[in-house]
Amino acid sequence: MLIDVNTQILGILGYPLGHSLSPMMHNRALQQQGLNYVYLAFEVEPNCLGKAVQALRVLGVTGVNVTVPFKEAIMVYLDELTEEARMCGAVNVVKNRQGRLVGSNTDGPGFIAALQEAGVETGGQRVVILGAGGAARAVAYSLARAGVQSVTFVNRTYDRAVRLADFIGRETGVKTRVVEWDSSATIAVVQEAALLVNTTSLGMFPGIEDMPPLDERCFHPGLVVSDVVYNPRETRLLRTARDKGLQTVDGVGMLVYQGALTYEIFTGIKAPVQLMSEVVGHHLAKNEG
Ligand code: ATR
């Protein structure tokens, strides 16, 4: 890679960033396509976010991804937000457009693209979402826009699910419902659903033996089970579903497609999705192995 006076700077803002796969995924794609960009990790102390955004402006950084803990906090520093970002209440991509910083969100669209790649139909389906945090909001908003029939939220903290369900219902017009975590009502709604999405952190490394509490009867034929957790690639939830013969969609697809959509925002060029997927898959397999 030749870095010269024209090299454009991309990166990721977060804290901590020790495990981020984005620099590797983007740099490999940029190199393969021969684009004159470099993608760096900017680990920013949480109380320095404002200064970091100012630095993006002053240094003319072309674009950054934004991750924990800044996805919500960064919004006040930006000049413009896309509708997706406003609705998700979070930004994972900032693009510098001639000095104006525009925040967008590719997490939800990345999730939908991963489902599409797996051949999962969303139109007219009943969906159950486990969780009611930031990931749940992005996934629910995108599923509603993709034309699902209804979204039922199941969350450990019931009130949080009620607030999210009200918001999604109001903003998108999709039918929403909330049922108690780990209850017989959970079994009933999952039995009627075509898609179950885990957006909680249960099952994520190092807690790899954890999974959301789901009765055997939830895993009915015809249910697709999806997880936004990508480390490990096959969570205990997905393993359980696969053992019962169900189709599963892992979180790597969402990670890769949010990356691909980000890449297209940054460069204006179609991302090499296959390569990005291989880079991430290879890295995760190496770590698990
Ligand atoms: P993110 O932005 O990744 O969605 P978040 O907003 O902190 O992160 O949300 C985390 C989600 O995982 C929440 O739905 C949370 O449930 P609560 O709203 O009850 O906190 C859920 N979660 C995290 N740890 C959990 C656990 N041990 N059991 C059940 N749910 C858990």
| Major sheet: arrangement of strands | 2-1-3-5-6-4
Biggest sheet, in brief? 6 strands, mixed
Write down the overall mean pLDDT: 97
How many domains?
Answer: 2
Compressed to H and E, one letter per element, the order equals: EHEHEEHEEHEHEHEHEEHEHH
Distance between the termini: 30 Å
Q: What level of helicity do the residues show?
A: 25-40%
**CATH top level assignment of the largest domain:** Alpha Beta
Number of E strands? 12
CATH topology of the largest domain: Rossmann fold
Residue share in β-strands? 15-25%
The number of helical elements comes to 10
CATH architecture of the largest domain: 3-Layer(aba) Sandwich
Low-confidence stretches: none
| Ions, cofactors and other bound molecules | 2'-monophosphoadenosine-5'-diphosphate
Q: Would you kindly provide a written description of the structure presented here, covering whatever features stand out?
A:
There is one protein chain. With 289 residues, the protein is an alpha/beta fold. The protein folds into two domains: 8-105 and 253-286, Rossmann fold; 108-249, NAD(P)-binding Rossmann-like Domain (Rossmann fold), CATH 3.40.50. 40% of the residues lie in helices and 20% in strands. It contains ten helices and twelve strands. The chain has helices spanning 22-32, 49-59, 83-88, 107-117, 134-145, 158-172, 184-191, 236-243, 251-267, 273-288; strands spanning 8-14, 37-43, 63-66, 80-81, 93-97, 100-104, 126-130, 150-155, 175-180, 195-198, 224-227, 247-249. The strands form two sheets. A six-stranded mixed beta sheet has the order 2-1-3-5-6-4, with helices on both faces. A six-stranded parallel beta sheet has the order 9-8-7-10-11-12, sandwiched between helices. Strand 7 (126-130), helix 5 and strand 8 form a beta-alpha-beta unit. Helix 1 (22-32) crosses helix 10 (273-288), helix 4 (107-117) crosses helix 5 (134-145) and helix 4 crosses helix 9 (251-267). The mean pLDDT is 97.
